[in-house]
Amino acid sequence: MKFRVERDVLTEAVSWAARSLSPRPPVPVLSGLLLKAEAGTLSLASFDYEISAHLHIPADISEEGTILVSGRLLADICRSLPSAPVDVETDGAKVTLTCRSSRFHLATMPVNDYPELPALPDVSGTVDGEAFAQAVSQVIIASSKDDTLPILTGVKMEIEGDLITLLATDRYRLALREIRWNPSNPDISTGALVKAKTLSEVAKTLGGSGRINIALSQNSELIGFESGGRRTTSLLVDGDYPKIRSLFPENTPIYATVETHALAEAVRRVSLVAERNTPVRLMFTDGQLTLDAGTGEDAQASENLEASLVGDDITVAFNPHYLSEGLNAFDSKYVRFSFTSAPKPAMLTAQDDIDGDNRDDYRYLVMPVRLPNQ
């Protein structure tokens, strides 16, 4: 095999494919990237029995062929090369990369031992990449990082007709985001539990490529995403996701509206004095929100903001990290806090005007920290 490709093109492609490599592959060959040069195209693939990645880039092919090389090492080498065309050529059991005066010799692995990549299921529909990426980023903040609860490390995708609903929870907060898409079958009704990490990578790497094809297998074991010549597949998380929709309150007699960016900055400043596991308190009164943190002999901080309140005065406390992540997920000028009572979870939704209606396509529910007098 022998080909030439631009350094930046190769580096970006190798880095993308290497993202899916397992840090602890079950067999050595799964640490490799499969490179196949044919018909003026270089394809790259990675697979770890759970997640696969495949893409192709244009290349000047002198000799067609297929090789398997260490993916992470190849990615590190490509990033270190000078900005110039890269020549890649096999020599027996080794492959040589040449870029100007830089030359690397890498050992190859047996191609025949590499498993066949899973085929992309039939496309179930398409969605706008940027809108999907934003929706994913808003929801995955609530997914669990605890691998001992694998079900909660996933994001539930519920599909009904032209509506996709993304749901995530780590038991302390919930996030729900609705987004429109174009299904192949207008009567589609299905669901999938996808790893949050997989969705995050799809959002980051395919979100800017235009429309994304979403493909779900009929046996509900595999999901695929495809855009801009790139394709990734992932096994779905096995198990029944908790029914969390019912936790979002239907009636909230108390609600307050605050400017989103101002509140996010105030929470960031006030929480500087909050010790680990110490909450930030929010006291809503008519026309004002007071934030404070710290008690007794410890450092203390407080700040006042304008706020619109409907209903009785209310004081609540939140984990500052959960509150900040939720606020930063909103792109609206204002955010509405909706309460049933102080000890119950608070629901955050977007609001464009201080006295306007709220939008409920994105809902973030966060558990409060119980105060001594509650």
Q: Let me know the average pLDDT.
A: 93
Distance between the termini: 72 Å
Quickly count the helices.
6
What is the annotated CATH architecture of the largest domain? Roll
What is the CATH T-level topology of the largest domain? DNA Polymerase III, Chain A, domain 2
CATH class of the largest domain: Alpha Beta
Strand-residue proportion: 35-45%
Helix and strand composition category: alpha+beta
Query: Which runs of at least 5 residues are low in confidence (pLDDT < 50)?
Result: none
Shape: elongated
- Order of strands across the main sheet: 15-11-12-13-26-25-24-19-22-21-20-23
Q: Main sheet?
A: 12 strands, antiparallel
Radius of gyration: 25 Å
Number of domains: 3
Write out the CATH superfamily name of the largest domain: DNA Polymerase III, subunit A, domain 2
Strand count: 26
Subunit structure: Forms a ring-shaped head-to-tail homodimer around DNA.
Protein name: Beta sliding clamp
Subcellular location: Cytoplasm
InterPro entries: DNA_clamp_sf, DNA_polIII_beta, DNA_polIII_beta_C, DNA_polIII_beta_cen, DNA_polIII_beta_N
Short account of what is shown:
It is found in: Cytoplasm. This protein has 374 residues and is of the alpha+beta class. The chain contains six helices and 26 strands.
Layout of helices and strands, plus pairs?
Blueprint lengths: L1 E4 L1 H12 L13 E7 L2 E7 L3 E8 L1 E4 L1 E6 H10 L5 E6 L2 E6 L2 E6 L15 E6 H11 L14 E7 L2 E7 L3 E8 L1 E2 L5 E7 H11 L4 E6 L5 E6 L2 E6 L18 E6 H11 L9 E6 L1 E7 L7 E10 L3 E5 L1 H9 L5 E6 L6 E6 L6 E9 L8
Antiparallel strand pairs: 1-5, 1-7, 2-3, 2-6, 3-4, 4-18, 7-8, 8-9, 10-14, 10-16, 11-12, 11-15, 12-13, 13-26, 16-17, 17-18, 19-22, 19-24, 20-21, 20-23, 21-22, 24-25, 25-26
Helix pairs in contact: 1-2, 3-4, 5-6
Subcellular location: Cytoplasm
Keywords: Cytoplasm, DNA replication, DNA-binding, DNA-directed DNA polymerase, Nucleotidyltransferase, Transferase
Protein name: Beta sliding clamp
